[in-house]
Write a structure and sequence with these properties.
homodimer; four-stranded mixed sheet; 453 residues; 60s Ribosomal Protein L30, Chain: A; alpha+beta; 2-methylcitrate dehydratase PrpD
Chain lengths: 453, 453
Amino acid sequence: MSQGLTRSLGEFVSKLRVEAIPSEALDWVHTGFADCVGTLIAGSVEEAPAIVHKTLAPPPGEASLYLVGPRVAAPEAAWINGTAAHALDFDDVALRGHPSAVLVPAILAEAETLRATGAQMAAAYVAGYETWAELEWREPQQLHEKGWHPTGVYGAVGAAAACAFLRGLDAERATYAIALGASQSAGLMANFGTMTKPFHAGRSAHAGVMAARLAAAGLTASPDALEHPQGFLSAVSPTGKVDRASPATAGREWRILRQGLSVKKYPLCYCTHRALDGVLDLLAEHPVSARDVKSIRVSTSRRNTKVLRNDRPQTGLEAKFSMQFAMASAIVARRAGLDELTDAFVQRPEVQALLPKVTVEPDDRPDPKRSGAAPWDLVVIETNDGRRLESRRITEERGSPELPLTREELWAKFERCLAVGNPRLDARAVFDALMSIERQRDARAFARLKAAA
Amino acid sequence: MSQGLTRSLGEFVSKLRVEAIPSEALDWVHTGFADCVGTLIAGSVEEAPAIVHKTLAPPPGEASLYLVGPRVAAPEAAWINGTAAHALDFDDVALRGHPSAVLVPAILAEAETLRATGAQMAAAYVAGYETWAELEWREPQQLHEKGWHPTGVYGAVGAAAACAFLRGLDAERATYAIALGASQSAGLMANFGTMTKPFHAGRSAHAGVMAARLAAAGLTASPDALEHPQGFLSAVSPTGKVDRASPATAGREWRILRQGLSVKKYPLCYCTHRALDGVLDLLAEHPVSARDVKSIRVSTSRRNTKVLRNDRPQTGLEAKFSMQFAMASAIVARRAGLDELTDAFVQRPEVQALLPKVTVEPDDRPDPKRSGAAPWDLVVIETNDGRRLESRRITEERGSPELPLTREELWAKFERCLAVGNPRLDARAVFDALMSIERQRDARAFARLKAAA
């Protein structure tokens, strides 16, 4: 019998060398760090990370809050920063979740503590991404269905792998770190649309930091915790029909090259993005005012209809998980950005009046290329004067790996995020440093940027 | 429609009054506190809590480690003490898990911080127990089957309820605390037999403390996080067939009166206890030496055979989850106590020689009264001289609610635990204080006992 998954991943993490990582993979690492740090700083002024910060009351330490803020103990920094990174739900998407919002805060916190180089940080990201990917492809169902939040449950394992790499753990201890991450995997879908959703990302980043530290200190765990019949893969699987047996390919192929990252253009749940692309294109061609709208029908996958649980949102947070709001915002503001995801905008009478006019129709046909998606999404607007406007069939979101944002588009989002979260920072210098992270001397490079600002 | 489960439990916790708790319930609370503190102190000299302590490096605070040790921040104290309480797997059992190992460390830590009275501590235990019980009865399957460790997953919710009570949260915030506990529920069966198992109890105690603190500080969560189709009950359920709809009865009936606690006489997994009672009774009547044994057959429930995963243990920790070891220890030492659960004893040649002679036969018939158990367990010894010795059919373990230990038996276990973990403490004074916890002025009563010692 070939070596089991947990040991294989422990070995992969312990043997990973920065030089072995293809440069195309580093392009995705740049995107992950830049997009995560941007959304983290934009999210730092939100209530959720502030509450987590106040409650954890972290002791002073080596790890910076919000890249250039006060330095506190690394586990707490990972927790607070992870909550900030996901607070706006504006951070990148891949592997059925939000990998960077968990991995980057864990890596930044431990890298500062351990004085790791930028190259080590980049490789730690790849270690975490590939570990997450090795779990994700084995599951044919949607974790969402039965209640598990993939970012929370996969994130703890991925972050454990990333931190095990940063600590230079040997294969046995890296295996234990991964098993310890898996035993902290948590987070419920039912808490979507509340502050507990971003909390999941932070909690998993914290779990990853702790898992590697505990394993380094000698806490033992099972070397088959992932693939055991009563282990991680089975536990989080909706039906238990999950591939526990296939050998791991991590280190022999790079899933990040095939799967990449999707960067969000809109600070709403990713399940709204195809429809938003479609409706905004449609409105650019056929301007329709709120008063003109008789009805809007959106066709999207059943998974998406379940995730988007708020059909009558009253707050900016609730609106993130509302297809009804996404359509209303497109009609009223011709966009759906940080300025629209506010309680005041959501509660505007013309927005509220549009919500009941939006019908969401679940499409049960699977997209063979994209787990959980339908082959395409579609938006149809009917106007009071009898027009019927139909969007194109939207198969790829802008910002997806197939239609990636240009560097300039990525920069525009980053700049806007820093304007919201920390306008005094030199956004261009931070962006350029993140987009070449493997060449930074260490994580303190960012603290130095602060001094320069 | 009646109020959902999460809100009902939030309301129960926020409205619970010490005076409303029946005195028979307090008898179980005494048992829970005394048995947990005893095993916690015995476990305090184990490696797992020492590693967690060293790794967390807790800042100074108000909460005592190991009842009378250094005072550190409460969340970390709950984590370290919870790990110690479960380190020997000698702590009490109920509700398909180990409630006191999670609830008591969380309660002790927050009670010291908040200067709660002994009566409030007792009521917090009942709040946690009843919340745990409200989740547990709804699930017809065994959480074990698909990989979830009930102590970890139910424990985080129960501890959140207990701490929400101690903090005096209103119904809304207590509801959020429970939802936040549920979103931290974690712990894999596959990590049984390693230090990560007791870590689960500590991690859940920490999660409960944090959940109540975060909710108190204003972090929001979903008021239907338990019963939502993508919520806690569904997520941890092996098949998803779980009662999400029945109204909660917490506060109107007291499940603790019906279900009580089982106190362990042996520091092995509870799944070995019926068979150990049976084989020890058999050996008392028919002494058999290790050399005489040809074979030992044990019949027990299939759940038990899955939990007891180590058929060839090499360490004291592995031996806790080994029916083979339980039988070997009974033959060689005529008991299975703290002195036998050591690497040295497990590795003794006559013990190792017996392991392959033990066969465990799964019994698929359900015990209608006890979820996961068979109607009875049975041990059959065949000797080299042709005798066939059959135990009685063991239906109730000694120490179970049906055959509870006497106060003197409980004291004997407590005294032995303190002799192992902290021989300088006045064991009798601590025991008496715990057995009347509702009359203690506050949690500092124990620190004062230290001063007297």
